[in-house]
Amino acid sequence: VQLQASGGGLVQAGGSLRLSCAASGSTFSRYAMGWYRQAPGQQRDWVASITSGGSTNHADSVKGRFTISRDNAKNTVYLQMNSLKPEDTAVYYCSGRRLSSVYWGQGTEVTVSS
C-alpha cells in the first residue's frame, strides 16, 4: 500500500488542522492505521492509532485534543487536531500495518506558532 499524507501547515496556538492520509489499494479496510510525529532532533513518537474495526487510541499528550478517524470508502485516515500547542510542531507521518508488514507515508509538516 502507498500512503500520501497532506493537510499540514502553519497555524497559531489554539488553532486546528486536519491531516489526511490517502491510501492506494483495495485492502485499506484491513489495515490498522496510525499517526506518528517527529520534532526536530527528536525521535519519532506515536500519536494515535485506529484498528481495522475502528477502535482508537491516542497518546496522553494529545488525548482530548486530537482525534483519529478513518473512511474506508475513501481509503483515507484523518487526524483532527484541535487546541494546537507549539509543542505539537513536528513532521507528522501516517503508517499502515497489516500482519507483519508496515508501510509509511511521507511526512506532512505542522508548525504551531505561539
Q: What's the mean pLDDT score?
A: 96
Tell me the β content: over 45%
Count of separate DSSP helical elements = 0
Span from first to last CA?
Answer: 37 Å
Alpha carbon gyration radius: 13 Å
Largest sheet: 7 strands, mixed
Secondary structure tally: strands: 11
Indicate the structural class: mainly beta
Provide the succession of SSEs. Answer: EEEEEEEEEEE
What is the 3D form?
Answer: globular
Residues in helices, as a percent range: under 10%
What does this structure look like?
Helix content is 0%, strand content 55%. The strands form two sheets. Strands 2, 4, 5, 6, 9, 10 and 11 form a seven-stranded mixed sheet that branches. It has a four-stranded antiparallel sheet with strand order 1-3-8-7, with no helix packed on it. Strand 9 and strand 10 (101-104) form a beta hairpin. The model has no long low-confidence stretch (mean pLDDT 96). With 114 residues, the chain is mainly β.
Spell out the key features of this protein.
55% strand; globular; 114 residues; seven-stranded mixed β-sheet
Q: What would a concise description of this structure say?
A:
The chain has 114 residues and is mostly beta strands.
Please describe the topology of this protein.
Layout lengths: L2 E4 L2 E4 L4 E7 L8 E7 L5 E7 L5 E3 L7 E6 L4 E6 L8 E9 L2 E4 L3 E6 L1
Parallel strand pairs: 2-11
Antiparallel strand pairs: 1-3, 3-8, 4-5, 4-9, 5-6, 7-8, 9-10, 9-11
